[in-house]
User: Fold this.
Amino acid sequence: MTTLEILTQAIKERKPISFQYIKPGKTSGNRIGNTHAIFLSTKNDGTQSTHVHIVQTSGVTDEPEETFPKWNTFKIEFLTDIEILENAPTFEIDPLYKPNSPMYSRVIEKI
Assistant:
């Protein structure tokens, strides 16, 4: 399955995922979180990217004293080793989630 297919399945099943975020300048290591939305965004120069909103619940972070849960936006192209945690309980929708946000005007999948 592709990255997009795995993330879409995780959203539909509301199951947490385990993943690596391999991006220059970011701390490498395993992260765990709840995927809420996949969407397209366009920069001012016209460059388009696919992003995913994940409520990170544990794992590595770039903040020295980070507390979880924490909303994060990740570029899909830098996600690797994604695994749906099938045996984990279904996650609750985060109270900060705004499904009608204009940010999701070009949504691929969302809760």
The chain has a mean pLDDT of 94. The first helix runs from residue 3 to 13. The longest strand covers residues 30-42. Residues 19 and 81 are 5 Å apart (CA to CA).
